[in-house]
Amino acid sequence: MADDDLVSRARTAVRQVLRETVTTTQVDDLALRAFEQSDTTGAWYPPSLTHGQAGTALLHLYAARAGLGDLDTACEHIREAVLSTRTEPLQHHGMFAGTSGLLLALADVTRDEPRFRTSLDRLTDQLAEQVLAAPPHRTEGAVSDLDYDLVTGAAGTLAQLSSVPDPSERVGEAAALLADHLIWLAESAETEGTPYRLLIAPAHYPPVGDYLTKYPHGYLNLGISHGVPGIAAALAAAWAAGHRRPGHLEAVTTLARWIRAQADIDTYGPRWSDGTPVDEHGHEVSAGCVHERIGWCYGTFGVAGALLTVAVATGDDALRAEAVTAFEGALARAGDLRPLSPTLCHGLAGLVMLTMEFAPWSTTARDRLPELVGDLLDRHEPDRPLGFADLEEPGKPVDDPGLLTGATGVALTLLAATGDRRPDWFRAFLGR
User: Fold this and answer.
1) Which residues, at least 6 apart from 155, have a Cβ–Cβ distance to it below 8 Å?
2) C-alpha distances in Å from residue 362, one per residue of 325, 329, 401
3) Degrees (nearest 5) of the Cα angle 340, 33, 85?
4) Could you tell me which residues come within 8 angstroms of residue 290 by beta carbon, excluding any fewer than 6 positions away?
């Protein structure tokens, strides 16, 4: 992006976030402030990519690469993140708050600071052993999105394992185990009343939201964060990396076909709701699309991003064109509407990230990117502690220092938009 004014404004905003997140004490104080302001913000956990110092390390790493920050600060944060696991061990392998996310951050820092190589190799081995020690269960009708999704489950971990260069035998075994599980989930169910193994039954709904009202008999999740699109993206990334299993490509093709079939069509093109319900007999019911989110986690933008990941990984030019059409249609449909929050998960930074992802193949995305970055910078409030606050609801700002729902993610997005290479942290959100 060559707009000098936007680049200058972005650097000013990023510098504020950097100044306020130099030390562990600073981020701990900010995390406590956010927790007190919010009813939903997750607890700060230093090894977490999205709500911890692993994410903070990435911010200072990419700032250092852009000439704005200090590599030593990035190293100190990733060191604290790794050391904290001695007192708060990583309980699961997932991407956002587990071993996979810490590994993503540590691998990126190690590219600039090779002295972390021993720790990186140790953590890579630990991730593989963690997966192999607790293989995913295979029980039809007892599937939870936490088991398979990009955020916590098999999809996110498979995406990270697929990025490991020259994988060891144990890493290969762990990747195969997760890929086989996701391939199994993509197959038709054998249990009566369960049309797909991916079906989430009411007994396994998250203990939040209005799932029972929307889906009284079960549903299939359509969000890239917690749903089928994330599985398709992760399997495609594994395929491209050479972790290829029996039925693998067929599963990717089946999932992509099913996702496309769930779309509602309007004058702008395909659009996706949050999920596809089933009736009491297990038959799919059209959900329509009365409300479409503008963001990464759910809705057309994120689904199009997942389909693009599949298309690039498998070399499917026709699917890539469909993904671009869906994304451009979503931009046109949104018009001047913007998410309430400036953040990555459900906010404007997520839309900017996705627009960057589509820019190599979409003139529309390239043309709209400066406008969207400008909109994001218009959300900058220099008087707030970090300049950007998450907005869970109007009038309730949260000064979150995290990557997923906080100012660190916004700053990383601005660095990506004003930089010249696709950042590795996109993998946590898009599977590649």
Assistant:
1) 148, 149, 182, 230, 231, 233, 234, 235, 431
2) 9, 12, 32
3) 105
4) 273
**Tens-digit pLDDT profile for residues 220-278:** 999 999 999 999 999 999 999 999 999 999 999 999 999 999 999 999 999 999 999 99
- Spatial distance between the Cα atoms of 258 and 188, rounded to a whole number of angstroms: 12
Cβ(135)–Cβ(107) below 8 Å: no
| Distances in whole angstroms, Cα of residue 42 to Cα of each of 283, 398, 403, 406 | 36, 12, 12, 11
Beta bridge partners of 329: none
* Parallel, antiparallel or unpaired: strands 219-221 and 264-266: unpaired
What are the φ/ψ torsions at residue 212 (nearest 5 degrees)? -65, -35
The model's pLDDT over 37-82, given as tens digits with 9 standing for 90+, comes to 987 766 899 999 999 999 999 999 999 999 998 999 999 999 999 9
pLDDT tens-digit map of 114-173: 999 999 999 999 999 999 999 998 999 899 999 999 999 999 999 999 999 999 999 999
- Rounded to the nearest 10°, the torsion over CA 183, 188, 190, 193 is 130
Report the DSSP beta bridge partners of residue 269: 266
